[in-house]
Specification:
With 126 residues, this protein is an all-beta fold. The chain is 0% helix and 50% strand. The strands form two sheets. Strands 2, 4, 5, 6, 9, 10 and 11 form a seven-stranded mixed beta sheet that branches. A four-stranded antiparallel beta sheet has the order 1-3-8-7, with no helix packed on it.
Length: 126
């Protein structure tokens, strides 16, 4: 099994920045696609960003493109989400997810991911 733990959430003013971290353990980290999703109150989890095991390819939701950057450090078994120019509508619980890459997987679909962290709250004030 793969265990994921998120950290770095908190309260920030609109226009500010935060960096989320997700530490992984249990299996070989470099073989996994890593993703970030977020969940608004009363809503389904939605895609934010994903990165392939090699770090060569990244994917972003239109709502965060140009503002957020996903990266990974396989030596530390950690994936990051750098969030810049934050808006109040970014307020949500952010979840880290992981899965072995499949030939036809769709990175933005939450059902593609097998492992999930507990989530970290991000609140952006006006």
């Amino acid at each position: 099994q793969v265990h994921l733990v998120e950290s770095g959430g908190g309260l920030v003013q609109a226009g500010g920045s935060l960096r989320l971290s997700c530490a992984a353990s249990g299996r070989a980290f470099s073989n996994y696609v890593m993703g970030w999703f977020r969940q608004f109150p009363g809503k389904e989890r939605v895609f934010v960003a994903a990165i392939r095991w090699s770090g060569s390819s990244t994917y972003y939701a239109d709502s965060v493109q140009g503002r957020f950057i996903i990266s990974r450090d396989n030596a530390k078994n950690t994936v990051y989400l750098q969030m810049n120019s934050l808006k109040p509508e970014d307020t949500a619980v952010y979840y880290c997810a992981a899965t072995l890459e499949s030939p036809r997987m769709i990175y933005a679909w939450k059902d593609e991911y097998d492992y999930w962290g507990q989530g970290t709250q991000v609140t952006v004030s006006s």
